[in-house]
Amino acid sequence: MRLPTGASRFVFIFAHPAGHVGAPRHYTPYFQGNGLDWHMVPLDIAPEHLAETIRTLAKSPSVAGFNLTMPHKPAAFELCDAVGPAAEFEGVVNTIRIEAGGRLVGESFDGGGFLNAAPRKRFSIRTVAAS
Predict the structure, then answer these.
(1) C-alpha to C-alpha distance for 49 and 24, rounded to whole angstroms
(2) 15: which of 42, 43, 74, 84 is 20 to 30 A away, CA to CA?
(3) C-alpha pair distances (Å), 77 with each of 67, 88, 93, 116
(4) What's the predicted TM-score (pTM) here?
(5) pLDDT digits (tens, 9 = 90+) for 48-70
(6) Does the pLDDT at position 41 exceed 90?
(7) 109, 95 contact by CB (below 8 A)
């Protein structure tokens, strides 16, 4: 794995607490395997500091975006300039992309991730619906 440099870009994953966050060990190699000099970094951010942290870090050209765990997903939804259809339906975001001009665009991939993973675990939505 490549170490970060001044040219690297970062995706911060905000949690509170953050000691359990294991996503960087999956995402950083994925980014680099796809030719990106990107690194995921977990940060323990207390809920009362989420908005100021996102607004401050979003100003840096080194920051590509944010991932969020609970308890931050509902509050992050409110900070976005625009949200995708899943986020609109769920009322939360777990990913924020920083676009030109600092525009924050959020989406939630939790539901889709669950639906994609369920068949691999032999879990059927039809089974639950039929109960």
Answers:
(1) 22
(2) 84
(3) 12, 9, 5, 23
(4) 0.84
(5) 999 999 999 999 999 999 999 98
(6) yes
(7) yes
